[in-house]
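SEQUENCE, STRUCTURE TOKENS:
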Amino acid sequence: MSTGIILGLGLITIALCFFVLLNIPYWFLLWNKRKNTSFVFKKKYHQWVYASDDILNNILKICVYSLYGYGIYIFILEIWSKFF
């Protein structure tokens, strides 16, 4: 196998793993909703309000914030080592 095929298969595997891991809470929610009829709660707002800030979006926000935080940390370390 060439290097490109190996890297491509690795990238597809990583993307598939992220898809499965990030969708597990949603799949459990659907499973519980199908099994339990008393799972319904009173909705005060439209459906998009509840769906816009679910756990998947919160996980993605944490990942992006930690990535930016790490970048700022590395930037400050490099500036500190260059000038001090």
User: Anything to note?
Assistant: The radius of gyration is 21 Å. Residues 44-84 form one domain. Helices lie at 3-35, 47-51, 55-83.
